[in-house]
Write a structure and sequence with these properties.
alpha/beta; Aminopeptidase; three-stranded antiparallel beta sheet; globular
Length: 416
């Protein structure tokens, strides 16, 4: 996950990475004017938005499309790991997905983790599960809620998702990003790969402790690449489809807890440390807070026990991580069920097509996790000292132990 300070008041906003935008075209809000770039003694370049004549709505506004080739000598040049060359540091805000280039070689192009949505609750019911197949456990998913005019993400066919057998509590570990979404990339660390490797470490340690573990992805691709995505309506972008698949896996498998693994990124290279997120605007909010606190405490403690001093950035509520026109926007995987209406997008000057609305489609909606969940941000890829720790095997093992201890501490408390 990457955070960039792009507004005039310096408020932080969180985005997901998407390198593909560099390979074809980038959508720029015409109200953005870049500032001259200056290098510090280490050769790092900070790119900031100098001024905005008017805010770029989170769900889109009228703007021009600029192919990468037209950006001239400062055009965005893709590099390994999703970073940008020093001459390609344009602070970008993109219609619909809010793409932004933050700070040079250390931060990849990023996009908003969730499109603009309302927090209208969705009521889900259960439907029958697929038939058991050898080696797999049948799972059930909520059916499409009866909300007039809204198209919900169709439940994925998860009969091919192997749910580990046994009696131990089932923990879903969600390695963030995947596929063309690299997250943050800097100092030789690519977040999507780091998250996956950390997921395997956590899986091993949890299994040794007697838990059953389901990873939302086990390869370099998106989570949705591992399941049958044919049932997903066109109204969901690839990012939302991917994130919904992670939620569906956890719900369908009957997980006791959902833990999403990320590392942070910011255009300020001095920012560092560990932080964890939960959401108060959804069911299980009290339990999710305890989970996030437990993860935060144990990761920081295990790092200290192993001789690594890391900054404790605390536990944060993401219910209003971003706000626009009085509406709060949380992280997709932690937020409540939500509905985005065509009228809502049009009122904000956006184009529903940028969110994948089909002609005549009035609304799109999503499901939330049916268990406590938290996101843990394991250090800052964009900080030199944190990046060194992310590349250190012993430090990574300590962080994995912290995630496992935090999870088991939370589950032990629930069982009392």
């Amino acid at each position: 996950m990457v955070r960039c300070t792009g507004s005039r008041d310096g408020s932080e906003q969180q985005y997901e990475g998407n390198r593909r935008a560099l390979e074809s075209s980038i959508t720029l809000c015409h109200t953005v004017r870049p500032r001259r770039f200056g290098a510090n003694p280490e050769g790092r370049v900070a790119a900031r938005i100098n001024s905005l004549k008017q805010p770029c709505a989170q769900n889109g506004m009228t703007a021009a499309h600029y192919p990468v080739s037209t950006l001239g000598s400062r055009g965005a040049a893709a590099r390994g790991g999703g970073g940008l060359s020093q001459r390609g540091l344009w602070p970008l805000l993109a219609v619909g997905m809010l793409l932004i280039v933050c700070s040079g070689d250390r931060v990849s192009v990023s996009m908003l983790l969730t499109p603009a949505v309302s927090t209208a609750p969705a009521v889900a019911s259960e439907e029958s599960a697929p038939t058991n197949s050898p080696g797999f456990i049948a799972v059930s998913l909520p059916s499409t809620p009866n909300i007039s005019g809204a198209t919900f993400a169709a439940p994925l066919d998860l009969s091919r998702i192997a749910v580990p057998p046994g009696n131990g509590a089932l923990v879903v570990i969600d390695p963030g990003h995947g596929g063309d979404e690299v997250g943050t990339a800097a100092y030789g660390i690519v977040e999507k790969d780091s998250n996956l490797e950390m997921g395997f470490r956590v899986e091993r340690l949890l299994t040794e402790a007697g838990y059953r573990v389901l990873l939302t992805r086990r390869g370099a691709g998106r989570a949705v690449d591992g399941v049958d995505g044919a049932g997903q309506p066109q109204g969901f972008s690839a990012q939302r489809r991917d994130l919904q698949a992670r939620i569906d896996m956890a719900n369908a498998a009957g997980a006791a807890v959902f833990v999403s693994l990320h590392s942070n990124g910011l255009d300020d290279p001095s920012a560092k440390g560990v932080e964890s997120y939960y959401n108060t605007a959804r069911p299980f909010s009290a339990e999710s807070r305890l989970l996030a606190q437990s993860l935060q405490e144990q990761v920081v403690r295990e790092m200290a026990r192993s001789g690594y001093s890391v900054r404790d950035r605390g536990t944060l509520d993401d219910a209003c991580l971003r706000a626009f026109q009085g509406v709060c926007f949380p992280l997709f995987v932690l937020g409540p069920s939500r509905v985005t209406t065509r009228d809502e997008i049009l009122r904000r000057g956006g184009d529903p097509a940028t969110l994948g609305f089909d002609p005549g489609q009035d609304a799109i909606a999503s499901r939330a996790t049916q268990m406590p969940g938290a996101v843990v941000e394991l250090l800052f890829v964009t900080n030199p000292s944190d990046a060194r720790l992310l590349g250190d095997d012993n430090a990574r093992e300590a962080m994995a132990r912290g995630v496992v201890l935090g999870t088991s501490q939370f589950l032990a408390g629930k069982s009392r």
